């Protein structure tokens, strides 16, 4: 089997996701209007334009005195204080030749054009005295200086974080239109697997991938069904695939996608739908299966089979499953951010496959490398806080610039 580049695989995976979105029943893709308190982590379905300017009136950016800059004489006799305006109060028009005591966020009186902060004002016999003429317009928050009425404040496909929701709230919106959550089913394959808490009888290993997938999916705000461990048999695997396809958008499995006799995922998916088996030119994470499972309604659920090695599972999830999930969720931009960083390590033998090396940022602003980069060494992924994306055949010397992808960007 010839190797496929990650970029080629991504083109196919995303094309599969886009095709899926065209075929799912219309009702499943109707945006839901949710209250702001339920919107965190959801994906916005339409652009949002503001129906108002923020702020909607001029207000003070400081505690101080609102005035007309032209009324101020530096070192002059001072101006009378004609009113006091706290935040939330409505001022009266400013009497010419006077100032208004004003507080942060309070509306500017009509006729005032400037705020002088209280530290720059001397009070002499109840008059506000100034040593300098202020710059007209200083410390005034103009109408719309944050948001202009009619402008687009949030874009379709935005993942709604705390700041997005706060911005919507600042314009008075109490609900937002979001796409439905992507429904994902997972199961682990392998007769060697037992669950933590069970005794480890000879020949068995503990199932770590199950928890890996649970955690990874929890970070992506999907609806996740964990179908547990499926025994290494064709019938059992087919039955679970059929069941999962009925009410999920994507099925993700770990293990069993190599071409060994004990790998039943491939024939099971083939029998229930279609599958392509790829040898990705990446390390770790070579085998990857992509396909679809037929549903009774004639549509299909997408299928991705990840390699069983835990580090390979993590890396292929981050690089291949995450973009598919983001696209299914309604996001256009699904590529993780790569940060040019200084290597504080050497990597004298580049692999012919593109490598994703477990690395960690250090206090000197560079990157350290975990000593054991084997795909069965899960310890590397706990020690590391991201991966170096190293092109095929590339050696690295200390001081070289490498491309770093932080787990915080990749896994949430
Ligand atoms: P496979 O892809 O099924 O050939 O598995 C590759 C390697 O990953 C083998 O050493 C498996 O024992 C191991 N493995 C498979 N599934 C899991 C799992 N759920 N948790 C931990 N290790 C696994
Ligand atoms: Mg196996």
Automatic annotation (TrEMBL):
CC cofactor: Mg(2+)
Biological processes, Gene Ontology terms: Mo-molybdopterin cofactor biosynthetic process
Reactions catalysed: adenylyl-molybdopterin + molybdate = Mo-molybdopterin + AMP + H(+)
A Pfam family: MoeA_N
PROSITE patterns per record: MOCF_BIOSYNTHESIS_2
InterPro entries reported in the protein's UniProt record: MoaB/Mog-like_dom_sf (IPR036425), MoaB/Mog_dom (IPR001453), MoCF_biosynth_CS (IPR008284), MoeA-like (IPR038987), MoeA_C_domain_IV (IPR005111), MoeA_C_domain_IV_sf (IPR036688), MoeA_linker/N (IPR005110), MoeA_linker/N_sf (IPR036135)
Protein name (database record): Molybdopterin molybdenumtransferase
Native species: Pigmentiphaga aceris
């Amino acid at each position: 089997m010839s190797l496929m580049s990650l970029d080629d695989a991504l083109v196919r995976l995303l094309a599969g996701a886009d095709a899926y979105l065209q075929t799912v029943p219309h009702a499943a893709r109707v945006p839901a209007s949710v209250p702001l308190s339920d919107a965190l982590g959801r994906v916005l379905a339409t652009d949002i334009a503001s129906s108002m300017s923020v702020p909607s009136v001029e207000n003070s950016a400081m505690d101080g005195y609102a005035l007309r800059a032209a009324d101020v004489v530096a070192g002059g006799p001072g101006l009378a204080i004609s009113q006091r305006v706290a935040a939330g109060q409505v001022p009266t028009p400013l009497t010419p030749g006077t100032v208004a005591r004003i507080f942060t966020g309070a509306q500017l009186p009509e006729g005032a054009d400037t705020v002088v902060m209280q530290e720059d004002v001397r009070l002499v016999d109840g008059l506000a005295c100034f040593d300098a003429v202020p710059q007209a317009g200083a410390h005034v928050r103009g109408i719309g200086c944050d948001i202009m009425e009619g402008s687009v404040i949030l874009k379709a496909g935005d993942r709604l974080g705390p700041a997005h929701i706060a911005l919507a709230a600042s314009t008075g919106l109490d609900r937002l239109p979001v796409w439905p959550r992507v429904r994902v089913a997972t199961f682990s394959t392998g007769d060697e697997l037992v669950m933590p808490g069970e005794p480890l009888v000879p020949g068995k290993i503990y199932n770590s991938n199950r928890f890996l997938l649970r955690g990874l999916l929890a970070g992506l705000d999907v609806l996740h069904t964990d179908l547990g461990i499926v025994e290494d048999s064709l019938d059992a695997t087919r039955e679970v695939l059929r069941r999962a396809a009925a009410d999920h958008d994507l099925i993700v499995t770990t293990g069993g996608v190599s071409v060994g006799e004990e790998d039943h995922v491939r024939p099971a998916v083939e029998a229930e739908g279609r599958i392509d088996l790829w040898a990705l030119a990446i390390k770790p994470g070579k085998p990857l299966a992509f396909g679809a499972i037929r549903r009774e309604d004639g549509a299909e659920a997408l299928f991705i089979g990840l390699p069983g090695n835990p580090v390979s599972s993590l890396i292929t999830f981050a690089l291949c499953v995450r973009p598919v999930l983001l696209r299914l969720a309604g996001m256009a931009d699904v590529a993780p951010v790569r940060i040019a960083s200084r290597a504080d390590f050497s990597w004298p033998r580049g692999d012919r496959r593109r490598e994703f090396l477990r690395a960690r940022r250090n206090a000197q602003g560079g990157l350290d490398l975990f000593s054991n980069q084997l795909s069965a060494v899960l310890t590397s992924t706990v020690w590391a806080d991201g991966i170096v994306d190293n092109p095929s055949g590339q050696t690295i010397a200390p001081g070289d610039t490498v491309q770093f992808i932080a787990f915080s960007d990749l896994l949430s």
